[in-house]
Design brief:
The chain has 479 residues and is of the alpha/beta class. The chain is built from 19 helices and 16 strands.
């Protein structure tokens, strides 16, 4: 066993920050791999010939990457892979073996291996694998740092928002606003498209409110006046034919807490009047009762509809609209916070991996590029569904655009549009020399291929043309 290199000058950079561990009982193969990694620019390398010592080494030295031989005495490589994937899910394990069996490779990838390399080592493939592994680890580290700095940037209780994955400035402003209004008793209206996370903001408001009662949530969409009244206000025994016993309504259950009314824009006119009475004085009548009850529950409501438009159409009461929005929070859609997509994808991949008993998933750069061009009508909820469905249907750890094709083909927004205005916001700016149409088209194609990492199907989608049309342009003779 060789310890981490200690003979470098004190001012030299140790790379990577977390050591790479090479495990192989063949000392010659071990030395070759070690030399290849040094040639690739790595100098923080550990080696081990005894598989029984691996778990102690990774726990003592915070290893970031492991090159693991499969066929070894004592503890086999596949057994070690399973243990490492379970106990250290962020560690990247790369299999090195002389066997070229497809079943073995598939089994290792399913067990959580980042990649599978055969001996004798193809140095170019080794370098490419190391590069991709280090890039993934650096991206994950950057995302974690951004999340940590975002949550701690001036927030008094960043832990309350830990379930909301973001580093978007607009969302962070909402967090600050939530902290400032949480302890008041005034109503809060949360607006935003379906799937943006309105319920999570409602939960944060309640968690910060210091109220002793519970958070009680109800979706009021589709409730007629009788069901709404019974659900919200409860009833007395004998209030109607099947009322054999008295029942407390949700507003009473939420006493001293928070009542969250989702889909408030779908409330009927009669139910709107009863809710307005509750908001004005805190009084309500259970069905069958002439004696009012009083509630001090805080009302938080949410809708994906435009209440101002509904008010103009006389489908929603003006006075109720004003009452509900004493405090108003509008959550931007995912297409307006594209910087959060890599974070969300990483989070949902980890969540899906845990649910399906898999590990080591990552999204290709091409897929992330395409997701940035998708309109996301279902927002974050839709993204989660897409990732979970893709993970359930793949046997590899690298998610490719093909797995999400059925979603991405539905609603891609083609962002390559020539702006008619000039200035800082223009999508195109020109030098004194105007390019020809052919030159402009060639430059657009080059840029689309660069952004999609050379993936022609992704580049074609960015340009708003078919893959066949792009291929034809690329094959056309250059004049």
């Amino acid at each position: 066993m060789w310890p981490p290199l200690l003979n470098t000058p004190m001012k030299s950079i140790v790379y990577p920050a977390r050591p790479v561990l090479v495990v192989d009982d063949d000392t010659i193969s071990l030395a070759i791999t070690h030399a290849a990694l040094r040639k690739a620019g790595l100098n923080n390398i550990m080696t081990c010939t005894d598989s029984r010592q691996v778990m102690a080494l990774v726990s003592q030295h915070t290893v970031g990457m492991v090159f693991l031989d499969l066929v070894m005495p004592f503890t086999g490589g596949e057994e070690l892979l399973e243990t490492l994937s379970r106990d250290y899910p962020e560690m990247l394990v790369i299999i090195l073996t002389a066997t070229e069996e497809v079943d073995t490779a598939v089994r290792c990838i399913k067990a959580g291996a980042f990649n599978y390399l055969t001996k004798p080592i193809d140095f170019e493939r080794l370098f490419s694998t190391v590069k991709n592994a280090l890039a993934l680890q650096e991206l994950q580290q950057e995302n974690r740092a951004l999340r940590q700095s975002a949550f701690s940037a001036g927030l008094s209780h960043p832990e309350i928002f830990a379930n909301i994955i973001t580093h978007n400035p607009r969302i962070l402003q909402i967090f600050h606003y939530v902290e400032s209004i949480a302890t008041t008793s005034e109503p809060v209206l949360i607006t935003g498209e379906t799937g943006v996370g309105k319920d999570l903001i409602a939960q944060a408001i309640h968690a910060l409110s210091r109220r002793q009662g519970p958070l009680v949530a109800v979706n009021v969409a589709g409730l007629d006046d009788t069901i709404f009244s019974d659900t919200l206000f409860g009833h007395l025994k004998g209030a109607f034919t099947s009322a054999e016993r008295a029942r407390k309504g949700l507003i009473e259950q939420a006493n001293s807490g928070t009542l969250f009314l989702d889909e408030i824009g779908d409330l009927t006119a009669v139910s709107q009047s009863k809710l307005l009475r509750l908001l004005q004085g805190g009084d309500y009548f259970p069905l069958g009762s002439d004696v009012p009850k009083h509630s001090d529950a805080r009302i938080v409501s949410a809708t994906n509809q435009d209440l101002w438009r509904l008010t103009k159409e006389e489908k929603f009461r003006k006075d109720l609209n004003f009452r509900l929005r004493t405090h108003h929070i509008n959550i931007p859609p995912l297409r307006e916070r594209l910087d959060d997509i890599p974070l969300l994808v990483e989070h949902f991949l980890a969540e899906a991996a845990a649910q399906f008993g898999k590990s080591g998933f990552q999204a290709s750069k091409t897929l992330l590029t395409l997701l940035g061009e998708y309109d996301f009508p279902g927002n974050i909820r839709e993204l989660r569904t897409m990732i979970f469905d893709a993970v359930s249907r793949t046997d590899t750890t690298m998610l490719s655009p093909r797995l999400l094709e059925s979603y991405l083909n539905q609603n891609l927004t083609h962002a390559v549009v020539i702006a008619e205005t000039s200035g800082d916001d223009a999508l195109l700016s020109f030098t004194s020399r105007l390019p020809t149409l052919k030159q402009a088209a060639d430059l657009l194609i080059q840029e689309a291929l660069r952004r999609s990492d050379g993936h022609q199907t992704a580049a074609a989608r960015l340009l708003g043309i078919s893959q066949q049309a792009l291929s034809k342009r690329l094959k056309a003779p250059k004049n």
